[in-house]
């Protein structure tokens, strides 16, 4: 099953989203800040990353930039998750290298569609 | 003529009045005495002549008595007794002639040298002609002429003595008279001239010292007295007037001081008020910022717990469904609906706040219209089905694409469909999509068969926070913000939403949007808090500025800004019109748009450069377009980006129009940041400067006045640093201006060889300190200031006046 790295500092959000994704058969890896996210992207080699943008240590934009700058992780698709619903945020996220963008609160069906779409575009290696 | 008279007058004029008077008296004495002397002398001579004549006539008579008998006897007799005349010492010579002129006898007194003239032809004409000579005819008793007698009297010493005495007497009398005249002139003259002399002295002294308290002390009678009196009176008047004037001046000075004091107070008050205003503006800006950040925070803070509520409710709902616990699943559905509704409300409030704050953005993208409509239908279907409504979709599959903000179009359609289903029960809701190729617009019409609206309700429909009826909110739910937001969205995309409705029969809402929505950018920034730089000239002299832009709004807004800043503004809506107007009014500056239908800005710029009368007018490019480099190379003086920044625009205009200060530094640099940096550095030193974006602009400034120093970048669009240096070198005046190169270029040896003799120093960007540049410029400024005698500006001299 595809492995998803969820980078999220809010415990409740992390819990909800991971449980619902696991229920749908995805394998989850969890990081609680941007720095850990970048490290785990390298060590876990997930098939997709769900990246919150307002993160401690290293924010989501910088974490995305680092992931995309490292050849070992550059090809992993990233979906930005942000509570800011402004267009400039969307631009900013895409500018940082995110492949897609979704606003919080997460609408699970919409997010699942985006995940599936990206996994089709970047098929898991295994 | 004038000079001659002056010369003639000078010796007399230089004499004092007293001497003039003396001279005058003497002259009258002299003339009188001379006339008396001549009269006496002539009278004396006449008497003397008479005496001689009568003596000669007596002698003649006696001679005639003696000679006549002798001649009667013998007319040729020569032995006449003339010698007896010797007893009369007064006869100098005598002779007797026959009637036909032959001398018979003669006598010449011993010791006298006399020549006896021949008898004249006509005797009568000679009678009495010479006082000392007598010719007479000797006639017989019968009246027959016997001969002619000549007698000449001698001038005796006594005669001479008499004339000499007369002359001596006259001279003595004249001398005595002259002496008396001088004495009288001095004694009397002093009395007459003294007042006049004093008058003259006082008037000269008053003229020299302006001391109007002096008076002529002498008194005199007659006209001089009157003259002195009126002169003193005049001095009285002048003294009074002068003291009055002095008083008035003092009063005025006092008033002026008071006025200045009042001005200072006023200035201080204005300054205080300005500070207060600036603070108020700042406070307002801060409040506005606080509101925005509060909204952003609210958005986050409200959504985070909602996120959890919705998320966990969904998990529970899923679990309940899996467990077959339908009761719980239904309850959780209600929780979820309420939570989603709350989220919708929050989003609406945020949307309307953002729109009101002008912070709502558009994200324009191309999308398939039918795909978007199908997505919307999928989302709205459950809502429509809820009240037993059916949906009819009329959308041609080949409707094609459009360019707009898809998210907002989706939100608008959902809003209309959700409204329709809210107010309709067991009816039909129709979504009809059409494309109007003529208008290049797309129409989305949502028609329902619901309760409809009265005209009054329609009137308030699109206002925020106002549903058709207050009771509606409680019955149907919603904030009533949805339509207001949708209408705003439509208008942001240059479209609109219209409605037709009939109470009880249903409503039709139609969204009309352009096929291609242009990203609407604000036309002006800083409009709410402008700091306009005023015209560098007085209110009376408003420089003429021509604005050439096809956008009417831009023309209007610039006109307003420039009018406030003290300029006379002319506008043209097209390139051609701009050129025509420029030739007609010859403006002091032109503001030019680049992208214009018909003749574009680049063409206008080129044509301006080719007209000698207009080539030196600075042109500021104001454009949202690219191609600015080309405009620069075509000779633009400055390049500004749209949206119009009132602060930058007015500052740029003032900088181009202000007269060049003495001993200024000319900065030629195309990079705006570098320009600002170096200008600020020069400002800090108190050195005035002028910037040019390239060589072309620099030349325009150089032509006006040579700077003390040139700070030159090398790589620039248009005329670059090397080309400018080449031109500078050819002008003998410019060639003397010291040049410092500031560049980021990697210079080849050839380049360095070229630059070294032409410049003071080459500085590399990012590799020199402020002090390096300042120390290079200082000597040039000092030398130039010394040469022109211009005072150097004080550090941090106030920049052009600004109005808040």
Throw out a few tags for this protein.
heterodimer, A: 126 residues, alpha/beta, five-stranded parallel β-sheet, 46% helix, B: 804 residues, five-stranded mixed β-sheet, 25 strands, 53% helix, rod-shaped, disordered N terminus, disordered C terminus
Would you mind describing this structure in some detail?
- The complex is a heterodimer of chains A (126) and B (804).
- Chain A has 126 residues and is α/β, with parallel strands linked by helices.
- Chain A is built from 5 helices and 5 strands.
- In chain A, strand 4, helix 4 (87-96) and strand 5 (100-103) form a beta-alpha-beta unit.
- Chain B is of the alpha/beta class and 804 residues long.
- Chain B is built from 20 helices and 25 strands.
- The longest helix of chain B is centred in the middle third of the chain and has 102 residues, at 222-323.
- At the A-B interface, helix 1 and helix 4 of A face helix 4 and helix 5 of B.
Strand content of chain B: 15-25%
CA radius of gyration of chain B: 63 Å
Shape summary of chain A: globular
- The helix count of chain A comes to 5
Helix/strand structural class of chain A = alpha/beta
- Provide the residue-averaged pLDDT of chain B: 80
Strand order in space, largest sheet of chain A: 2-1-3-4-5
What is the β-strand count of chain B?
25
Identify the quaternary structure here.
heterodimer
Q: Give the terminus-to-terminus CA distance of chain A.
A: 9 Å
Approximate helicity band of chain A: 40-55%
Strand content of chain A: 15-25%
Give the overall pLDDT of chain A as a whole number. Answer: 88
Overall geometry of chain B comes to rod-shaped
Alpha-carbon distance between the two ends of chain B: 71 Å
Question: Topology, please?
Answer:
The complex is a heterodimer of chains A (126) and B (804).
Chain A lengths: L2 E5 L3 H13 L3 E5 L2 H11 L3 E5 L7 H10 L8 E5 L4 H10 L3 E4 L4 H14 L5
Parallel strand pairs in A: 1-2, 1-3, 3-4, 4-5
Helix pairs in contact in A: 2-3
Chain B lengths: L1 H13 L2 H57 L17 E7 L5 E6 L24 E7 L5 E9 L3 H53 L12 H102 L2 H31 L8 E4 H18 L3 E5 L6 E4 L1 H17 L5 E9 L4 E7 L7 H6 L9 H7 L5 H11 L3 E7 L3 E9 L9 E2 L6 E2 L10 E5 L3 H13 L3 E5 L2 H11 L3 E4 L8 H9 L9 E5 L4 H6 L4 E4 L2 E2 H12 L7 E4 L3 H14 L3 E4 L2 H10 L4 E4 L8 H10 L8 E5 L5 H7 L5 E4 L5 H19 L13 E2 L1
Parallel strand pairs in B: 6-8, 12-19, 14-15, 14-16, 16-17, 17-18, 20-21, 20-22, 22-23, 23-24
Antiparallel strand pairs in B: 1-2, 1-4, 3-4, 5-7, 8-9, 9-11, 10-11, 13-25
Helix pairs in contact in B: 2-3, 4-5, 5-10, 6-7, 7-10, 12-13
């Amino acid at each position: 099953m595809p492995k998803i790295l969820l980078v999220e500092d809010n415990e409740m959000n992390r819990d909800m989203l991971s449980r619902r994704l696991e229920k749908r058969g995805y394998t989850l890896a969890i990081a609680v800040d941007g720095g850990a996210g970048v490290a785990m992207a390298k060590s876990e080699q997930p098939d997709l990353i769900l990246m919150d943008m307002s993160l401690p240590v290293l924010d989501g934009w910088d974490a995305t930039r680092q992931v995309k700058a490292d050849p070992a992780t550059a090809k992993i698709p990233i979906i930005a998750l942000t509570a800011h619903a402004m267009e400039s945020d969307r631009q900013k996220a895409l500018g940082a290298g995110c492949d897609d963008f979704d606003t919080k609160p997460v609408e699970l069906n919409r997010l699942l569609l985006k995940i599936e779409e990206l996994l089709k575009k970047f098929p898991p290696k295994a | 003529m004038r000079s001659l008279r002056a010369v003639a007058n000078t010796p007399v004029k230089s004499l004092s009045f007293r001497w003039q008077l003396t001279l005058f008296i003497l002259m009258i004495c002299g003339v009188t005495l001379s006339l008396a002397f001549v009269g006496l002398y002539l009278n004396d001579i006449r008497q003397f002549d008479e005496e001689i004549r009568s003596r000669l006539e007596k002698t003649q008579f006696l001679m005639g008595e003696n000679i006549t008998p002798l001649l009667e006897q013998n007319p040729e007799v020569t032995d006449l007794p003339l010698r007896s005349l010797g007893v009369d010492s007064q006869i100098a010579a005598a002779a007797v002639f026959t009637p036909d002129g032959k001398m018979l006898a003669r006598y010449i007194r011993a010791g006298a040298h006399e020549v006896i003239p021949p008898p004249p032809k006509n005797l009568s004409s000679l009678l009495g002609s010479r006082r000392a000579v007598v010719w007479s005819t000797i006639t017989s008793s019968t009246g027959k002429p016997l001969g002619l007698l000549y007698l000449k009297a001698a001038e005796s010493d006594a005669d001479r003595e008499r004339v000499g005495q007369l002359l001596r007497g006259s001279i003595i009398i004249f001398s005595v008279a002259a002496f008396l005249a001088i004495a009288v002139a001095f004694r009397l003259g002093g009395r007459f001239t003294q007042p006049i002399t004093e008058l003259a002295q006082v008037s000269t002294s008053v003229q020299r010292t302006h001391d109007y308290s002096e008076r002529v002390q002498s008194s005199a009678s007659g006209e001089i007295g009157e003259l002195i009196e009126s002169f003193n009176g005049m001095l009285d008047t002048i003294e009074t007037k002068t003291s009055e004037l002095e008083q008035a001046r003092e009063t005025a000075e006092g008033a002026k001081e008071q006025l200045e004091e009042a001005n200072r107070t006023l200035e201080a008050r204005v300054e205080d008020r300005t500070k207060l205003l600036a603070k108020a503006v700042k406070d307002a800006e801060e409040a506005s910022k606080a509101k925005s950040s509060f909204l952003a925070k609210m958005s986050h803070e409200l959504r985070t717990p909602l996120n959890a509520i919705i998320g966990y409710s969904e998990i529970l709902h899923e679990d309940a469904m899996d467990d077959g616990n339908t009761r719980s699943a239904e309850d959780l559905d209600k929780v979820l609906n309420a939570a989603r509704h709350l989220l919708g409300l929050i989003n609406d409030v945020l949307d309307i706040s953002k729109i009101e704050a002008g912070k709502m953005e558009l994200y324009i993208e191309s999308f398939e219209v039918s795909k978007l409509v199908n997505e919307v239908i999928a989302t709205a279907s459950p809502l429509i089905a809820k009240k037993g409504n059916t949906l009819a979709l009329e959308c041609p599959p080949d409707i094609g694409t459009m360019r707009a903000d898809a998210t907002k179009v989706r939100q608008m359609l959902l809003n209309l469909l959700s409204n329709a289903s809210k107010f309709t029960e067991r009816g039909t809701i129709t979504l009809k999509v059409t494309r109007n190729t003529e208008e290049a617009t797309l129409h989305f019409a949502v028609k329902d068969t619901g309760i409809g609206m009265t005209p009054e309700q329609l009137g308030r429909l699109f206002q925020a926070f106002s549903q058709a009826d207050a009771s509606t909110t409680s019955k149907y739910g919603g904030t009533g913000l949805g339509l207001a937001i949708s209408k705003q969205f439509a208008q942001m995309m240059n479209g609109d939403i219209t409605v037709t409705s009939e109470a009880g029969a249903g409503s039709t809402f139609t969204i009309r949007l352009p096929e291609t929505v242009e990203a609407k950018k604000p036309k002006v920034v800083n409009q709410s808090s402008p700091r306009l730089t005023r015209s560098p000239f007085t209110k009376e002299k408003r420089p003429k500025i021509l604005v050439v832009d096809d956008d009417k709004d831009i023309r209007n807004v610039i006109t307003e800004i420039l009018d406030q800043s003290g300029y006379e503004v002319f506008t043209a809506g097209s390139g051609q019109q701009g050129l025509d107007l420029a030739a007609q009014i010859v403006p002091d500056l032109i503001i030019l748009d680049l992208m214009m239908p018909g003749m574009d800005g680049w063409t206008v710029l080129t044509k301006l450069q080719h007209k000698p009368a207009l080539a030196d007018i600075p042109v500021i490019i104001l454009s949202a377009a690219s191609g600015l480099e080309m405009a620069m190379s075509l000779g633009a003086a400055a390049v500004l980006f749209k949206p119009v920044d009132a602060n930058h625009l007015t500052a740029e205009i003032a900088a181009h129009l202000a007269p060049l200060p003495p001993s200024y530094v000319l900065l030629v640099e195309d990079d705006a940041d570098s320009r600002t940096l170096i200008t600020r550095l020069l400002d800090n030193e108190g050195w005035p400067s002028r910037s040019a974006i390239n060589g072309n602009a620099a030349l325009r400034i150089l032509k006006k006045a040579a700077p003390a120093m040139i700070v030159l970048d090398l790589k620039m669009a248009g005329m670059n640093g090397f080309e400018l240096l080449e031109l500078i070198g050819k002008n003998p005046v410019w060639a003397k201006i010291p040049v410092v190169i500031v560049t980021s270029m990697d210079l080849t040896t050839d380049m360095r060889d070229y630059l070294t003799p032409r410049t003071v120093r080459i500085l590399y960007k990012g590799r020199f300190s402020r002090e390096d540049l300042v120390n290079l410029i200082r000597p040039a400024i000092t030398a130039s200031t010394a040469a022109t005698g211009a005072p150097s500006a004080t550090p941090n001299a106030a920049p052009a006046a600004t109005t808040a």
